[in-house]
Amino acid sequence: MIQSTLFFYTLFCFGKILLPTGELNMNSTNESASAKMWVANPDTSAKTDGDTTHCYSVKWKIPVQYTYKIINTYPHDTAAYTQGLLYDGGYLFESTGQFGQSSLRKVKLSTGEMVKAINLPDSVFGEGVTFLTNKLIQITWKSKIAFVFDKATFKPLCTLPYTINEGWGLTTDGKNLIMSDGSANLYFLDPNSMTQLRTIEVCSNKGLVDQLNELEFINNEIWANIFNKDIIVRINPESGLVVGEINFTGILKTEERNQHADVLNGIAYDPESNRLFVTGKNWSKIFEISIHQKQ
Ligand SMILES: [Ca+2]
Q1: Contact status, residue 94 vs residue 84, Cβ threshold 8 Å
Q2: Separation of CA 170 and ligand 1 centre (Å)
Q3: Per-residue pLDDT tens digits for 46-100
Q4: Entry pTM
Q5: Domain-wise residue ranges, the chain
Q6: What separation in Å is there between the alpha carbon of 265 and the centre of ligand 1?
Q7: What are the Cα distances from residue 213, in Å, to 123, 170, 223, 229?
Q8: How far does residue 267's CA lie from ligand 1's centre (Å)?
């Protein structure tokens, strides 16, 4: 295993660094203009105020209720306080949290072997992580800074500051970054500058849905863990409406829980094989699951 500690902290990203498509430059002045061009999906009646979409104005529907089946299980490091989870090519990429224990890891799914890892500075608390082309972007809890790594080598490339007070989850729709901060808001950010482009409020038939945590963009929906609940919600990325709720109660059996096992957190998706993976903080297992509508 290659493991090293991140040795730089203040090398800011500069110039054109991340963009997966198009030709935006982080020094571009077009960011606010592009935000204003965004309009709500005409299929919804979500109202937009400035750059924020309010789902309270949408006719609420009861989210479709789902349950799960376990397809397979894989080992997970019980020392990993999972804050972000991704899948690519037989490997999981994981961000772990806690001050002094935060890291970015590449782990072989089938064996749990950690093939690459880098430790974050002791002063930061790792949170969500996402791919963007050949880069990995990892956010932090309260440091208002994201670390950018080369996906293949884990070479630290630079850091990106952002203005959102707390970083929780991170994903991408292939164009923009999408970040949660523990509230009911999801923030769409320019991947070059992390400038906020637009915000959606997340609602279900019960009102605002807050404590949005780890994220994954799956088939044009945003899936989100709800902190301290065994629930993952499926969110329409245009309106903010919760269209489905998956209940994972009991997925980690009592006898499988170690003394450090914490809450359900971590969603990864394999688009090539349509496989879904979930885990929890310090859990001993990664679960490959399928979901099924409750009868
Ligand atoms: Ca994820």
Answers
A1: yes
A2: 7
A3: 677 777 877 765 666 789 999 999 999 999 999 999 999 999 999 999 999 999 9
A4: 0.86
A5: 44-293
A6: 9
A7: 21, 9, 10, 10
A8: 4
**Which residues have CB less than 5 Å away from ligand 1 (the ion)?**
85, 216, 267
Nearest to 267 by CA among 226, 209, 221, 215: 215
Q: Which residues contact 18 (CB under 8 A, 6 or more apart)?
A: 26, 132, 133, 135, 137, 148, 191, 192
Please tell me the predicted confidence (pLDDT) of residue 280.
97
Instruction: Tell me how far apart the alpha carbons of residues 132 and 47 are, in angstroms, rounded to a whole number.
Output: 30
C-beta of residue 102 within 8 angstroms of C-beta of residue 125: yes
The residues facing 94 across adjacent strands are: 85, 105
3-class SS shares of the chain: helix, strand, coil, % to 5: 5, 50, 45
Per the CB < 8 A criterion, the answer to whether 70 and 253 are in contact is no
Q: 267-282 burial, b if ≥16 CB within 10 A, otherwise e?
A: bbbbeeeebbbbbbbb
| 3-class SS of residue 33 | helix
Class of 44-293 in CATH:
mainly beta
Instruction: Fill in the DSSP letter of residue 92.
Output: E
> Alpha-carbon distance 288 to 295, whole Å?
22
From ligand 1's centre to the CA of 29, what distance in Å?
A: 30
